[in-house]
Amino acid sequence: MTQILILLVIAGFIIFFIRYKKPVKLGELPDGYRDLLSKHVAFYRDLDEEGKLLFEKKLKELLGYIRIHGVKTDVTGLDRLLVASSGVIPIFGFPEWKYYNLKDILLYPGAFNETDFSTEKDPDILGMVGNGTMQRMMILSKPALHHGFENTSGQGNTGIHEFVHLLDKEDGDVDGLPEALLEKQYTLPWLNLVAKEIGAIKEGHSDINVYGVKNKAEFFAVAAEYFFEQPDLFKVHHPELYEIMTRIFNQNPLKK
Ligand SMILES: [Zn+2]
Questions:
Q1: pTM for the whole thing?
Q2: Integer distance in angstroms from the first to the last C-alpha of the chain?
Q3: What interhelical angle do 33-40 and 49-65 show, nearest 10?
Q4: Ligand 1 center–CA 166 separation, angstroms
Q5: According to the 3-state scheme, what is the secondary structure of the chain?
Q6: Distance 156 CA to ligand 1 centre (A)
Q7: Which of 23, 104, 137, 212 could tie 219 with a disulfide, CB 3.0–4.6 Å?
Q8: How confident is the model at residue 35 (pLDDT cuts 50, 70, 90)?
Q9: Residue 226 above 50 pLDDT?
Q10: What pLDDT, on a 0 to 100 scale, did the predictor assign at position 138?
Q11: Checking phi first, is residue 105 left (phi over 0); if not, alpha (psi -120 to 50) or beta?
C-alpha cells in the first residue's frame, strides 16, 4: 500500500514537471500569411526581411497561448493574423514578452454594449479588456478590428488600443501609467505631459482622439494607436509625447 502511494506521488511529480516545463506551444500561421500580412498590416510591410521574420515569430508565440473564439461569426485566417498583429505591434520592441493577463479573445460580429455584451441593445463598444469573472479575456468587434488595419482609417486601431490596456495592466492597474515599462525618472514627465495634452484636447487644441479625455488610461491607449498608426504625424504634432512613448514601448516606429 505504502509503495503504491509513493509511486502515485512520484507519478504526480513527473506529470507536474512535464506540464510545468512544457514550452509555449507555437501557434500555426494560416496559409498565405506573408501575403496577407503584407497586404493588410502596414507595420509589417515596412519592416526589413529580418524584422518580418521576427514579427512572424512573435505572431506564432502569441497564437500559441491565446485562443480566439468567434461569437456568432467565423474566425478566418486573416482575423487571427490581425488579432495577433494588434498584440505584437506594441511589444515588438521587447525581446521577450508574454501577455500573462490574456487567455481568450472573443470576436463579435459588431459593436456590443457594456452591460450584457449584447450586439442588439445600444451597441456602442468596439473592444474591451475583461475584469473580474472576465479576467484574462478580451472582446473585439470584428469589423472594428479590420477597420483599424485599413489604410484609410487614420489614427485609430481598436486591436492595438485593447492590447495597450493590457500592457498598462501589467503592473496591476489600468491607469495610464505603465510602471512595468517606464523607468522611474520618466514617471513625472509622463504624467505632466498626459495632463497637459488632456487639457489641450478639452480646449480643442489637439488632434488626439477626444475619447482620451475620459481618463489617463484611455488617453494612453488612444495616443498609442496614433503613435503606431501615424508615427510621422504624431512626432511632428507631439514631439515630447513621441519621445517618451519610444521609451515606454522600447521602439521607434519611424526607425524600424
Ligand atoms: Zn479603452
A1: 0.88
A2: 64
A3: 110
A4: 10
A5: CHHHHHHHHHHHHHHHHHHHHCCCCCCCCCCCHHHHHHHHCHHHHCCCHHHHHHHHHHHHHHHHHCEEEECCCCCCHHHHHHHHHHHHHHHCCCCCCCCCCCCEEEEECCCECCCCCCCCCCCCECEEECCHHHCCEEEEEHHHHHHHHCHHHCCCCHHHHHHHHHHHHCCCCCCCCCCCCCCHHHHHHHHHHHHHHHHHHHCCCCCCCHHHHCCHHHHHHHHHHHHHHCHHHHHHHCHHHHHHHHHHHCCCCCCC
A6: 12
A7: 212
A8: very high
A9: yes
A10: 96
A11: beta
| 167-203 tens-digit pLDDT | 999 988 899 999 989 999 999 999 999 999 999 999 9
**Using one digit for the tens of pLDDT, what is the confidence trace for 65-82?**
999 999 999 999 999 999
Per CATH, the number for 33-249 is 3.40.390.10
- Name the phi and psi angles at 140, rounded to 5: -130, 140
Please state, in angstroms and rounded to a whole number, the distance separating the CA atoms of residues 60 and 62. Answer: 5
Q: Measure 239 CA to ligand 1 centroid, in angstroms.
A: 23
Set of cell numbers at residue 79 = 482575423
**Nearest alpha-carbon partner for 122 in 132, 109, 113, 133:** 113
- How high is the pLDDT of residue 4? 63
